[in-house]
C-alpha cells in the first residue's frame, strides 16, 4: 500500500491527483498525519509526504527499524518542485522518479551510491560482470543530468529499463558530442566520448608444440585479437587439451594475461577423445595423429564455451590462427533474452522478498495481471514497459513473456510460482529463465493464525477456472479422510461451503477454522471460529481459509496443531 499524506489544500489536491495516477494501491490518508501514520505504518509499502523534509523526517524517524523492511519514503515540497527519496533505497529512488515524472518536478536521489553516479550504468557493469574502459563517473553524471546518452548493444545483451534520455542501438549511431556506451566484446571504432563495458564472453582455445614460449603464445593472441577485432579483456577462460595443460609456455601466457585483468581466467583442459567429438571448420590429420583429436584450439574453445554457456548459444568467432609452435582460436558465448517469474507474495509489501524487488528493477518489460502489477509499480525503474494481461489463461500470459524474452529483452512475469510451469513448457534454449520465490498466502496466513501448519498439511485451490469441481471434490475428500490441515484458497462462490461440508464429515465439531484476509502479515484481519456453524458466505473470495485437523486447537484466538505424539 502507498499512503499519501498532506496538510495543506494544495498538497491534498496534488496528493489526490497522484493517488489516481499510482493506482488502486495508493490512497490519500485523511485526518491528522501523525496518528494516522503510526496506525498505518506496519501496512505501508511506501509513503509520499507533501511536507517539508524536516517535518517528514521528524514524523518517520521514530518509526524506522530496518532499512530492508521499512517503507520507501518520498517527500514532495509545497511547490511540487522536487520529489526527494528519503528512505527505502532503490524502491524509494524508483518511486521518487515516478512521482517526479507525473508531477513534472525533479527527482532528488539522496543515497550515497546514487548521488555519485551509481546509475543504470553501474547496474549494467554488475549484471554483465564487465570490465570498464572510460570515465564511468562522467558518463553517469551526464545521464543523471538528463543529457542524451546512446547505448550501442550489437550483441543484444538483455538490458534493464533505460531513462528517457538514453537510446539503444544495435548498429553504430552517427557520431556526435553525446556519450556513447558500447556494450561489446569487440573493439568497435566509435567517435566522440565513449564508455566501453566489456563483458566476459570469449573463450580462447590454445594448442602448441612442445617447448613453445609464453611470448609466442602471447604474440599470437594479440594477432588473433587484431584480426578479429576482439577485445582480450572479454576473455572468460582459456582452454586446451589435457596433454598441453602443463605446457610452461601456455601456463605462463595465461598467467601473464591475468596481470592486466582483474583476475586471471581459468585454463580449462579436456581429454583428447572429448575434443575429437567437437565439430570444427578446420580439422587437421597431423594433430589427430599426434594427439588423438583433429583439433585442439577450435575444439577446446567451442567445448569450453559450451560448458560455460549454461544453455546460451555458442559460436566460433575466430578460426584457428597458426604461429610459431602455437595455434589459437576464439569462441563466444552469445547473450540471450532473460525471463524471470517473480512471485510478489501476499498483498503485504513487507512480506515481499528483496530479490523480487531487485529483479523488477532489472527488467525492461514487466508482464502480469493488473492487480499484481499495481502492487509493484512503485518499485519499477523509470522507463520500464508494463504489459497488462487480461485475467484468464496462465499459458497465454506466459507465452507473451516468453515471446518478449526471445526477442532479447529482460522480462519479469509477475504472478505466482504456478506460472513457472507454463513458461518452461513454452521456453527453449533461446532464453534464460529463472524464478523468484515468494512468501505464499498459506505461509502468511499460518503466521497470522499462530501455528496451524505444525504437522502435515495440504493446499487446495477452489477456483472454478482452474479445476472442475469433481476433481476438487475428490481432493477434498482425500484430505478429509487423511486428517491433515487443509488451506483453501480462491474461494469461488458455493465451492467453499461444499468443501467445508465434506470436511465436517471427518472433523470434530470444535475443529478450528481460521480466516485470514488479503495483505495480512501482522495478525490483523484474522478470525478463528469452529467448523460447526461456520458461515462461508461471510468469507471474502480473496481470503485464505485454514481448516484444522483433529489435532488442531484454538488457543487465545489463534490456532495450533499438535504433533501426533502430543495428541
Give the low-confidence spans.
112-118, 520-524
The biggest sheet, with number of strands, parallel, antiparallel or mixed sense and barrel status, is:
6 strands, mixed
Helix content: 25-40%
Shape: globular
Q: Structural class of the secondary elements?
A: alpha/beta
- Mean pLDDT score, rounded? 87
Radius of gyration: 29 Å
Range of strand content? 25-35%
Task: Please state how the strands of the largest beta sheet are arranged side by side.
Answer: 2-1-3-4-5-6
Task: Give the total of beta strands.
Answer: 29
Describe the 3D structure.
Helices cover 33% and strands 26% of the residues. The strands form six sheets. It has a six-stranded mixed β-sheet, sandwiched between helices. The protein is globular, with a radius of gyration of 29 Å. The two termini are 42 Å apart. The model is unreliable at 112-118 and 520-524 (pLDDT under 50).
Topology diagram in text:
Layout lengths: L1 E5 L2 H14 L3 E3 L4 H8 L5 E5 L2 H8 L11 E5 L5 E6 L1 H15 L2 E4 L2 H4 L4 H9 L2 E3 L2 H9 L4 E4 L13 E4 L9 E5 L9 E6 L3 E7 L5 H15 L6 E7 L6 H11 L7 E5 L1 H5 L8 H7 L5 H12 L5 E9 L3 E8 L3 E7 L10 H9 L2 E5 H7 L8 E5 L4 H13 L3 E6 L4 H7 L4 E6 L4 H9 E2 L5 E5 L7 H14 L2 E5 L5 H10 L7 E5 L9 E5 L13 E4 L4 E4 L2 E4 L6
Parallel strand pairs: 1-2, 1-3, 3-4, 5-6, 8-9, 8-10, 10-11, 12-13, 13-14, 17-20, 17-21, 18-19, 18-20, 22-29, 23-24
Antiparallel strand pairs: 4-5, 7-11, 12-16, 15-16, 24-27, 25-26, 25-27, 28-29
Helix pairs in contact: 8-9, 15-16, 18-19
Amino acid at each position: 500500500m502507498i499512503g499519501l499524506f498532506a496538510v495543506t489544500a494544495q498538497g491534498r489536491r496534488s496528493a489526490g491527483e497522484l493517488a489516481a495516477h499510482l493506482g488502486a494501491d495508493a490512497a490519500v490518508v485523511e485526518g491528522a498525519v501523525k496518528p494516522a501514520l503510526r496506525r498505518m505504518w506496519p501496512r505501508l509499502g511506501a509513503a509520499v509526504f507533501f511536507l517539508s523534509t524536516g517535518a517528514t523526517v521528524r514524523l518517520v524517524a521514530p518509526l524506522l527499524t530496518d532499512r530492508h523492511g521499512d517503507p520507501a519514503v518520498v517527500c514532495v515540497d509545497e511547490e511540487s518542485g522536487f520529489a526527494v527519496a528519503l528512505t527505502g533505497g532503490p524502491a524509494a529512488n524508483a518511486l521518487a522518479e515516478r512521482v517526479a515524472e507525473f508531477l513534472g518536478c525533479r527527482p532528488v536521489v539522496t543515497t550515497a551510491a546514487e548521488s555519485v553516479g551509481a546509475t543504470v550504468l553501474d547496474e549494467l557493469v554488475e549484471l554483465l560482470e564487465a570490465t570498464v574502459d572510460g570515465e564511468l563517473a562522467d558518463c553517469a553524471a551526464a545521464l543523471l543530468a538528463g543529457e542524451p546518452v546512446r547505448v550501442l548493444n550489437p550483441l543484444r545483451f538483455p538490458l534493464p529499463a533505460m531513462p528517457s534520455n538514453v537510446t539503444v542501438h544495435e548498429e553504430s549511431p552517427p557520431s556526435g558530442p553525446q556519450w556513447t556506451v558500447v556494450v561489446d566484446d569487440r573493439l568497435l571504432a566509435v567517435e566522440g566520448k565513449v564508455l566501453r563495458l566489456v563483458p566476459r564472453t570469449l573463450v580462447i582455445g590454445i594448442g602448441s608444440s612442445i617447448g613453445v614460449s609464453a611470448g609466442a603464445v602471447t604474440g599470437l593472441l594479440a594477432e588473433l585479437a587484431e584480426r578479429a577485432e576482439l577485445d582480450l579483456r572479454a576473455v572468460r577462460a582459456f582452454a586446451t587439451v589435457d596433454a598441453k595443460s602443463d605446457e610452461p609456455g601456455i601456463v605462463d601466457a595465461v598467467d601473464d594475461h591475468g596481470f592486466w585483468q582483474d583476475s586471471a581466467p581459468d585454463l580449462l583442459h579436456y581429454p583428447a577423445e572429448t575434443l575429437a567429438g567437437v565439430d570444427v571448420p578446420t580439422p587437421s590429420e597431423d594433430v589427430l595423429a599426434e594427439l588423438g583429436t583433429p583439433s585442439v584450439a577450435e575444439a577446446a574453445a567451442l567445448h569450453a564455451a559450451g560448458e560455460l554457456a549454461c544453455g546460451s548459444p555458442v559460436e566460433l568467432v575466430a578460426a584457428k590462427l597458426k604461429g610459431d609452435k602455437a595455434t589459437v582460436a576464439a569462441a563466444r558465448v552469445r547473450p540471450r533474452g532473460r525471463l524471470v517469474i517473480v512471485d510478489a507474495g501476499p498483498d503485504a509489501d513487507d512480506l515481499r522478498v528483496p530479490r523480487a524487488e531487485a529483479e523488477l528493477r532489472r527488467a525492461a518489460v514487466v508482464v502480469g495481471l493488473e492487480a499484481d502489477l499495481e502492487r509493484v509499480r512503485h518499485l519499477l525503474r523509470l522507463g520500464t514497459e508494463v504489459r497488462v494481461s487480461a485475467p484468464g489463461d496462465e499459458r497465454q500470459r506466459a507465452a507473451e513473456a516468453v515471446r518478449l524474452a526471445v526477442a532479447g529483452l529482460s522480462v519479469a512475469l509477475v504472478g505466482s510460482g504456478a506460472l513457472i510451469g507454463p513458461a518452461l513448457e513454452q521456453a527453449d534454449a533461446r532464453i534464460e529463465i529463472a524464478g523468484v520465490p515468494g512468501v505464499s498466502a498459506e505461509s502468511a496466513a499460518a503466521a497470522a493464525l499462530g501455528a496451524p501448519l505444525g504437522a502435515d498439511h495440504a493446499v487446495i485451490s477452489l477456483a472454478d477456472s482452474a479445476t472442475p469441481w469433481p476433481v476438487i471434490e475428490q481432493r477434498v475428500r482425500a484430505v478429509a479422510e487423511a486428517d491433515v490441515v487443509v488451506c483453501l484458497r480462491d474461494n469461488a462462490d458455493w465451492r467453499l461451503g461444499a468443501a467445508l461440508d465434506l470436511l465436517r464429515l471427518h472433523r470434530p465439531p470444535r475443529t478450528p477454522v481460521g480466516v485470514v484476509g488479503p495483505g495480512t502479515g501482522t495478525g490483523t484481519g484474522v478470525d478463528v471460529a469452529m467448523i460447526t456453524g461456520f458461515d462461508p458466505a461471510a468469507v471474502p473470495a480473496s481470503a485464505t481459509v485454514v481448516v484444522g485437523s483433529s489435532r488442531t486447537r484454538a488457543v487465545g484466538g489463534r490456532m495450533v496443531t499438535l504433533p501426533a505424539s502430543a495428541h
